[in-house]
Amino acid sequence: MIQFTALQSDDDLREIIKSAFDTDLDIEGSWGYTQNLATILNYRETPLSQFEHMFASMRAYIEMNMTKEKNDRYGSINLNEIAREQFTLKTKTYDKITYRVTAMKEDIYASFIAAYKEGYGKETFDISEHFKQREKATLIREVIHWFDVSKVL
Fold first, then answer.
1. How far apart are CA 109 and CA 74, in angstroms?
2. Would the pTM count as exceeding 0.85?
């Protein structure tokens, strides 16, 4: 199984996101790998589940692309929520969300796109086989993200 390194932060999460994605999110804390390292949401303008999904997507992109060497980078990174739990512990409320992450190595993804563009509409192009091969080349992983949502409920 391919392992991805957990991201580290020294209370500079907001700055990292601003630098990487040119997006200013009112967050603090950490990357959300555990309850103790939860991402703290201070304010949001979008629906909570959309905000959480956006941030989890950013984390996945940094883990699987931005921090990797060129030949090890993943593209076509997609997250789908598969489980959600909410916990209230002492004075804090947490969302613990499990996402199914799918991705493909960037170079392999690029070759599938090129093959699709070249073959689409031609009698010799087997679109079913093309998508079977894409599915075989897709990495699937499950990740958990913890959010402290106490300030936004």
1. 9
2. yes
List the chain pLDDT tens, one digit each, 153 residues: 678 999 988 768 999 999 999 999 999 999 999 999 999 999 988 999 999 999 999 999 999 999 999 999 999 999 999 999 999 999 999 999 999 999 999 999 999 999 999 999 999 999 999 999 999 999 999 999 999 999 999
Burial of 27 (0-12, 13-18, 19+ CB in 10 A): buried
Domain ranges of the chain: 13-99+142-148
Tokens 């563009």 -> residue: 117
Residue 98, phi then psi, degrees to nearest 5: -105, 130
